[in-house]
Amino acid sequence: MAKELKELESRSVDYSQWYQDLVIKADLAENSAVRGCMVIKPYGYAIWEKIQRQLDDMFKETGHQNAYFPLFIPKSFLSREAEHVEGFAKECAVVTHHRLMKDPNGTGLVVDPDAKLEEELIVRPTSETIIWNTYKNWITSYRDLPILVNQWANVVRWEMRTRLFLRTTEFLWQEGHTAHATREEAEAEAQKMLEVYATFAEKFMAMPVIKGVKTATERFAGALDTYTIEAMMQDGKALQSGTSHFLGQNFAKAFDVTFVNKDNKQEYVWATSWGVSTRLMGALIMTHSDDNGLVLPPALAPFQVVIVPIYKNNEQLHAIDAKANQIMAKLKSLGISVKYDNTDNKKPGWKFAEYELKGVPVRLALGARDMENNTIEIARRDTLTKETRSIDGIESFIKDLLDEIQANIYKKALDYRNANIREVNSYEEFKVEIEKGGFLLCHWDGTPETEELVKNETKATIRCIPFEGDKTPGKCMVTGKPSARRVIFARAY
Amino acid sequence: MAKELKELESRSVDYSQWYQDLVIKADLAENSAVRGCMVIKPYGYAIWEKIQRQLDDMFKETGHQNAYFPLFIPKSFLSREAEHVEGFAKECAVVTHHRLMKDPNGTGLVVDPDAKLEEELIVRPTSETIIWNTYKNWITSYRDLPILVNQWANVVRWEMRTRLFLRTTEFLWQEGHTAHATREEAEAEAQKMLEVYATFAEKFMAMPVIKGVKTATERFAGALDTYTIEAMMQDGKALQSGTSHFLGQNFAKAFDVTFVNKDNKQEYVWATSWGVSTRLMGALIMTHSDDNGLVLPPALAPFQVVIVPIYKNNEQLHAIDAKANQIMAKLKSLGISVKYDNTDNKKPGWKFAEYELKGVPVRLALGARDMENNTIEIARRDTLTKETRSIDGIESFIKDLLDEIQANIYKKALDYRNANIREVNSYEEFKVEIEKGGFLLCHWDGTPETEELVKNETKATIRCIPFEGDKTPGKCMVTGKPSARRVIFARAY
User: Are B351 and B308 in contact (CB under 8 A)?
Assistant: First the structure.
């Protein structure tokens, strides 16, 4: 194993360090000179682009259009919606001036005191306020509805403790903001977009998720209901991977957005918002990867196949180059992305370790003996198994293999998750079980007080009230009061 | 003509008002609640997405990868490169605090004085500084070079006078930042990317451009050479549409980025940067549009064809719907994007005017008589001409027509531009001619003083020293001193 790989901490020793090592060593991202802000490196960004492209197609298929709203939000906008301000006004980047000048007492630059803004601007932590202030001018009648708009943007939340992809001061995301004539239509939209997220997570990220609704405590600030998809990482912790909010008429009331309905009456507009972010990169990494490095689902890998030549001299290399080009052309004709790495300054062993670290789903090796026998060595990243096969029909074999890998890593993640969901019936048992990780299905009396107590004592939160599964009533594990149904408790990222 | 269209100012009366009206009425963009920041509306953003997708493909074909760097730049970074600070530190958004709190004396929010940043952060006006600070850690040896990275991002420059798309405080752009082992390679890269921009402008935007190099006065702050593409708008003014900079070793020196070359010697890295922005939207609008509204090149239109049904009753509509669906399927199979507008609450005349205003290249109308005769009415947006044809083979007719429209609007713009390039030989003549607009080819003595004098007296600047064209020496039109060759003077956006 190459030296670089040895430096990757093992998951069982220190999961958190393993994650950090992997993000850095697989060239996905790194910390920048600006506290809490990351640099997303080309290999990491290529995965994010695949995520974006796929989600964007799914948004468009469901009737949404993209638009772009300002980065800055006037300070006063944030305090218009009473709950929203509590959630988002606390830690944010505040622009107070619009000019620098040479330091009159030194050599550097200082803020020009004459360039103070009349009203401070906040770098958007989320865009409900600026968008609903805009929608006010777009909506007069029910004929102007629905508005189905999404934006791909950067947002800033001043986080005290940051971790690459999982929690950064600046992150990239999409935020959908829709406006509707009826409550029913808005609720249906919020649920539809949660379905889109769940489909994307399972089909493309190969990551099983549980769909559900958040408790009042865990809701988005300003929402009447927050729907969520929750995934389980390999350390048994939950990662909230996407949320969709039914906002009721809260933002319409805060920004006075009304419309004339079919009965010719003035009414406030109904709203949703929904988003996923570069946090999905963290979810992707932690769902599938192992102590050898990243494991990428073929559907999101920047390149699905890598070909490495093994040769002793230039003559051999030229012959292998020609064969590799033939194979590449065949693979590309089936829509498979492939990289041929015939760079001369690295040994095959180094390349094998490198592409293992980078999670390339399939690695092909072509050597002198393969040339003689018309064979090729095929290595799977997910199972770390190898086999040698005839080159004839290799392209359709690999196409099927990529589908199999996609299905296999999904199944592996699903099995792990299912094996780590447990019913727990007493708070005593809960305190023991929560230390083992996983999702605990427990009865809860529905009060924020009990939720708070559990959180303070065990660091576990209610991840969601799942849409599916057992809906039998019972008694709260903490208070013994009536419980409508079991909910999911877990420690979370 | 519909009421909305009448409200569009005519170009001959007030070109600037016409532009403003058109951007608003064609639903491209609008001003936001934040001074100088625009909202890009879905129809405008759909054009920008086409621009992005095409450019992104071209960047990738030329070996570039995307990445993402922080929105914020530490204040001290800006003063590291001596010229850069002059150009970019003046008008910028300065983040000084990271928290708001409830106003102790009122109901709103105030900046929390305890949350003052140790060092102020600048919202990026351009990213050379933060990127070269990052590259320092990526580059050790010539084997790490070249780095060919691009980023799609928002940037902020605190503009005093703003105009939608042309000059806004926040705008969207791409910025390429490359690092090379040799001066020659960096210079070749800067020129290659100018070629990419020129090809994109001419082939996709149908906008002829003149390639050239900027004078020292007009160079990017920190560059050794700035290459530019300059387009002529319909009022005869120039619009700088894309620039590519050869940065020499300036940023490598400022951020101490060195590498070990093949001769095992330490050397500073060579750099380029290059960018185009949402300003291209302004260029696109002003190159082709007319007093009836937008004229879009088929290559960038959100939808290339619109079908409008003309009917008296539901029975007719159902028959037309069926026929329209057949036509749409045929068009889509040829890769043509098409919208069928059978909404019931607008008259055909209103729809005709609306799609004319929005610049849809081809409009098809299907009426009861067409159904009888198996015909369809085809209207071209560029020439405003109509004809009725058999539906048989309509798809290949339209495919050819779209190509013809793309070529025709390019030719029209090229003819206009060529008719408005004039040689001028005396400064007296210049002062008269510049009032008529257009590009003036004049001899210039090569000094910034003469450039400055001309600018102060006539508002004209040297747009570029063109790569192509007459290279005969002569005498400066102002000073009579020797001139190496004619350069292009114009008033500019």
Answer: yes
Q: Hunting for tokens 């194993």 — which residue is that?
A: A1
Side-chain-side CA neighbours of residue B136 (13 Å): 16
Helix axes B183-203, B42-61, angle to 10 degrees: 140
Which tokens sit at B114?
A: 């305890």
Cβ contacts of A100 on chain B, cutoff 8 Å: 75, 78, 89-90, 92, 94, 122
Those residues whose C-beta lies under 8 Å from the C-beta of residue A347, and which sit 6 or more positions away, are none
> What is the token pair recorded at A114?
């004459």
Q: Which residue from A374, A197, A166 is spatially nearest to A279, judged by alpha carbons?
A: A166
What is the distance in angstroms between the Cα of B180 and the nearest Cα belonging to chain A?
Answer: 17
Tell me how far apart the alpha carbons of residues A315 and A321 are, in angstroms, rounded to a whole number. Answer: 10
Q: pTM of the predicted model, to two decimals?
A: 0.96
* Choice among A101-105, A251-255, B81-85 with the minimum mean pLDDT: B81-85
Nearest CA in chain B to A53: B53
Contact (CB<8Å) A69/B154: no
The per-residue pLDDT for range B214-251, each reduced to its tens digit, is 999 999 999 999 999 999 999 999 999 999 999 999 99
Contact in structure between B462 and B436 (CB atoms under 8 Å): no
Residues of B in contact with A69 (CB under 8 A): 32, 39
HSE, CB side, 13 Å, CA atoms: give it for residue A327.
32
Say whether A39 and B76 touch across the interface (CB within 8 A).
Answer: no
What's the pLDDT score for residue B107? 80
* Distance between CA atoms of residues A419 and B215, nearest Å: 69
The answer to whether the bond into B298 is cis (omega within 30° of 0) is: no
Q: Smallest Cα–Cα separation from A491: which of A469, A452, A463?
A: A463
| Closest-CA residue of chain A to B41 | A67
Q: Could you give the C-alpha distances from A130 to A138, A389, B390, in angstroms and in order? A: 13, 59, 50
- Is A477 in contact with A444 (CB distance < 8 Å)? yes
Average of per-residue pLDDT across A228-242: 98
User: Considering chain B, what is the average pLDDT of its residues?
Assistant: 96
Cβ–Cβ < 8 Å for A114, A30: no
Is the separation of the CB atoms in A145 and A269 below 8 Å?
yes
Q: Between these two residues, B481 and B108, which has the higher pLDDT value?
A: B481
Residue B151's nearest CA partner among B208, B207, B230, B70 is B70
SS3 B39: strand
What per-residue string of b and e applies to A221-237 under the rule 16 or more CB within 10 Å gives b?
A: bbbbbbbbbbbbbbbbb
